[in-house]
Design a protein that fits this description.
Layout lengths: L1 E4 L2 E4 L8 E4 L26 H11 L7 E4 L11 H10 L4 E5 L6 H10 L3 E5 L6 H7 L4 H18 L5 E8 L7 H11 L3 E6 L20 H11 L4 E4 L11 H4 L2 E4 L5 E2 L8 E5 L2 E5 L12 H5 L2 H11 L56
Parallel strand pairs: 3-4, 3-10, 4-5, 5-6, 6-7, 7-8, 8-9
Antiparallel strand pairs: 1-2, 10-11, 12-13
Helix pairs in contact: 3-5, 6-7
Length: 373
């Protein structure tokens, strides 16, 4: 496969080297969190139908380097009417399985089946230690439920003598909770959590912009130093950046990830999965969903190895696109109004992506501590 880039000829041999397959089996959710993408996007809601799900799994069997299927996206997987059928189907076919969940619908029976089936990874969402004060002040009414789910899961793992599933917790750091992050890490260690992922907020409206920590308004160095010190005794931590740095690194591209939406459309990452507004350092922008194909029409392997998708991944990996975030013209340039195209002709545009600056993180279950692949 050859294509031109800045007058140079780029030659790439496409490979079926997809390693992590993220499935948004539904974009519905049982909660209505104030700062979630779902409250602002333009997309319709839906569940992945069973035939499409089986088609995706069949396609996945053609990918020799695939390490894990991960139920994620923007939605709560457990609200799917056939959620447990899907879990069983993935494990019966011999795939490793991970997922992100708010935990509310994962009752004791489901958690016990997770352990028996050998579900590999589960990340729970939690943004505060579930004390009475926090529940009232921050509105994190699910934190206590998640605590109970984690305790039960640890108990079941001990009962069956299993190391699976590995338990992670995702935390979105804001001005409301950043001071308690070290205490939260110690609390999660006590619960038996294996991994803590600390990400940042992407404001979806200007009203939420004042909550971000990466605009220089807060010195996060003491907090991060405490977290690194705690991490030596567990849990393992992935901590976002809290200031803009020069390096650009896309976890999705570098780790060979793709995302299949509930309707079969295939996306390179979470950012382009839906159409929604975002606010980048006070500047409003529209993110437009960008698919590279639909698995109803082509195989996942064909889409992954298509010229358009291969070219996109090469450009992202080479950082061959403009840095809109710190461009002096970003307040007057029309290209930064949406992600359709940037001033270098790249489409879709990653120039304003906070994931690429590692300010925003998502679970990428690559190997650490001998627990993930």
């Amino acid at each position: 496969m050859e294509f031109q880039l800045w007058g140079a000829k780029v030659s790439i041999e496409p490979k079926p080297d997809l390693k992590y397959l993220y499935l948004e089996i539904t974009n519905r959710c049982n909660l209505k969190c104030e700062m979630c993408f779902k409250q602002y996007w333009e997309d319709e809601e839906g569940d992945m139908d069973w035939e499409l799900f089986l088609k995706v799994l069949g396609d996945a069997e053609e990918l020799p380097e695939l390490k894990m299927i991960y139920f994620g996206g923007i939605g709560e997987p457990s609200v799917h009417p056939r959620f447990m059928d899907m879990v069983r189907e993935v494990k019966e076919r011999g795939f490793r399985l991970g997922m992100s969940s708010n935990g509310v619908l994962l009752n004791d029976k489901i958690l016990e089946e997770f352990v028996k089936l050998g579900v590999d990874v589960i990340y729970f969402s939690m943004d505060a230690i579930p004390t009475g004060e926090n529940l009232i002040k921050l509105g994190h009414v699910t934190s206590k439920i998640v605590e109970n789910r984690i305790k039960k899961l640890v108990e079941l793992k001990e009962k069956y003598g299993s190391e699976k599933p590995t338990i992670g917790v995702e935390v979105v750091a804001t001005k409301e909770n950043y001071k308690e992050l070290p205490d939260m890490a110690l609390y999660l260690r006590k619960l038996g959590v294996d991994s803590m992922l600390i990400s940042n907020l992407i404001p979806l409206s200007k009203e939420h912009s004042h909550l971000i920590l990466y605009d220089g308004s807060v010195d996060m160095t003491p907090i991060v130093n405490k977290l690194h010190s705690i991490a030596e005794g567990g849990p393992f931590m992935r901590i976002a950046e809290f200031k803009l740095r020069t390096e650009r690194y896309c976890d999705f591209v570098e780790n060979n990830v793709t995302v299949v939406r509930w309707d079969g459309e295939v996306f390179p990452c979470y950012r382009f999965l839906h159409t929604y507004p975002e606010v980048i350092f006070g500047r409003e922008k529209k993110v437009i969903a960008h698919s590279f194909g639909n698995v109803r029409e082509k195989s996942l392997k064909e889409i992954w190895m298509s010229e358009e998708y291969v070219r996109f991944r090469f450009i992202v990996k080479a950082s061959a696109y403009p840095s809109c975030i710190d461009c002096p013209l970003n307040t007057s340039c029309s290209f930064v109004l949406d992600t359709e195209q940037d001033c270098w002709g790249t489409s879709p545009s990653c120039g304003d992506c906070l994931w690429s600056r590692r300010i925003v993180l998502c679970p990428i279950p690559y190997e650490y501590m001998g627990k993930f692949l």
